[in-house]
UniProtKB/TrEMBL annotation:
<keyword id="KW-0653">Protein transport</keyword>
<keyword id="KW-0813">Transport</keyword>
<dbReference type="Pfam" id="PF09451">
    <property type="entry name" value="ATG27"/>
</dbReference>
<keyword id="KW-1015">Disulfide bond</keyword>
<keyword id="KW-0812">Transmembrane</keyword>
<dbReference type="GO" id="GO:0031966">
    <property type="term" value="C:mitochondrial membrane"/>
</dbReference>
<feature type="domain" description="MRH">
    <location>
        <begin position="30"/>
        <end position="194"/>
    </location>
</feature>
<comment type="similarity">
    <text>Belongs to the ATG27 family.</text>
</comment>
<dbReference type="InterPro" id="IPR044865">
    <property type="entry name" value="MRH_dom"/>
</dbReference>
<protein>
    <recommendedName>
        <fullName>Autophagy-related protein 27</fullName>
    </recommendedName>
</protein>
<dbReference type="InterPro" id="IPR018939">
    <property type="entry name" value="Autophagy-rel_prot_27"/>
</dbReference>
<keyword id="KW-0472">Membrane</keyword>
<keyword id="KW-0333">Golgi apparatus</keyword>
<keyword id="KW-0496">Mitochondrion</keyword>
<dbReference type="GO" id="GO:0030659">
    <property type="term" value="C:cytoplasmic vesicle membrane"/>
</dbReference>
<keyword id="KW-0072">Autophagy</keyword>
<dbReference type="GO" id="GO:0000139">
    <property type="term" value="C:Golgi membrane"/>
</dbReference>
Amino acid sequence: MGTTLHRQRLRLSVLAALLLASRSHADDLFSCTPNVQGHAYDLSELGKLVSVSSVASTPPSRTTTTYTLSLCAPIPVREDAPAEDQCPPGTRACMIVTNDKDPHATRVISVIPLAMEANEHRLDPSLSLLDSSKSQQPLLIKLHGGQYGEQAQQLELELLCDPDTANSEPVIDAYTPSNGTLTMSWTSKFACATHSPSGDTPQTGEPSNNQGRGFFGWFFLVLFLGFIAYFAIGMWHNHFTYGETGWRMVPHREAWADLPYVVRDVFRRGDRGSGYTVLS
């Protein structure tokens, strides 16, 4: 009896440890629909695979640095490249430096996984809002887990909201070898919060049906609806009260019939008033 109870307790302890480990591991992963201080984001469009390169002249050769980023999923492993020439599986941000003297003879100088989730490496994502005078505060994303030699690596990505910018690429700000930090910035409408504590959402360059209508827009809309109501109620009243039909249903029809002549007389008086008489 005592042995059976001990085994049950041991099983429960192992199960609890596994659940705790899996939860801790899940917390280390980066979500592309984060909620930061009440601001909700959908970074799916920015989470797709993207690469940017910079080229430096290093006579007699040329050095190219390629930065590859994949926020929402690990960077796919290339089947056409040796394993040592690419970042390991589970990498989210990778920096590869190549050098070539001949376009057909490129050699890989360094492969640096900046942020990754594999084995003992953890992304350990950190998200925060930066102070800004803009209505949409920049979102700072920090991802960890990279290792190059003895130096730990990390990515600092600043997302800037611009409702009018769609097709854009991240900008490389700097890479600091001494602390292994790559800083990038990315301006896009997909970096805007989809919901904020104040309830505001970003305004794009394409206004919705109820946007961009100022005082005069509302004034003429109300005036137009007033005319429609005036004619509808007047015609209904004349028809059901006096039995009028056709043109005779129009309210104040005599005044509307005289309107063209009134306008004509006004213009005639204006022309007559603008003339002059020659005095002898």
